[in-house]
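Hello again, I could really use a second opinion on something today. My current little project is about how a certain protein chain folds up. You're getting the sequence in one-letter code plus the fold written as tokens. Here's the protein in full, and shout if anything looks odd to you:
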Amino acid sequence: MKKVFIYFIAFLFICFILPALLTKFEMSANIETSSNETQENEAKTSEEEYVYNKYGTIKLLHADTNEVEEVELDTYLCNVVSAEMPVDFEKEALKAQAIVARTYTIYKINNKKHDNADICDDSTCCQAWISKEDRLARWADNKEEKWAKIEECVNETKGKIITYNNQPINAFFHSNSGGKTELPVDVWGGGTNMPYLQVVETSGEDGYTQYNSEVELTNEEVLEKLKTKYSDIQIDFNNEEDIKILEYTTSGRVKTIKFGNHEISGTEARSIFGLRATNFQITKTEGKVKFTVVGYGHGVGMSQTGADSMAKNGSTAEDIIKHFYVGVEIKEVNSI
């Protein structure tokens, strides 16, 4: 009789209870999977469905051909980011570059420099740009993975721009600040209407190849280069006072320097002698002049190597941007 009871219980468990339990577990798994898929689809849809109220397409002037191409903003930004920042930089630094480049582009659209286009692909005029085909050709390996990384950084920041007083900022950037950024007034003589561009310090930039450089010229070469701008230049290379830094900017860069019978700005000296930055020292040896330079670029706004250094230490794209641009907010462009 006891065996019959046990068999009966086992029969009930196999026929009724076990199927019910399996069904419950299966439903729970399906619900969890469905929930995960829904979240993934919502994120994907949100990314794909971002629609710019304006600025969705831009007119890009190709400087070498003088042709104007209409291109989607974020497609254009992939080309810009891949041209402006090394792809092996940290992802948060690349995302910061994407936001900065988007902001700079929209600022240019609202403050036109070209009659027939919003922006050009000449880095000395606007910002650098390279086609996807040329970019892939220049990378030695993992080409598609690298391009996918660029696209992710642009897509994950869709619509985001930097604002001050609810307006897009003039988001200047450069390669390496040498540890401290510069005021625009000390580079271009203007920029007092851009209070978000201040002198800020950044550590870790000395670990990059862009940090140090040297230019050594003979006395004759120094004279030759200066004569392209000042035909009456005269320098007594034996007189210590004839080549001398007279004044420094707030950030410690060369503001004014004397060459014989002329006093010129640090930015002009940088241009004449092909220096990477205006943060330099001068050493005179027998028959030669050596410029020892720290940093790379004009020094205004975001330092790209500084951004990468910050990202390596755990900073987010937002942290990076708010470090280099004082008092700003990151907003969706559709909200302004």
The radius of gyration is 29 Å.
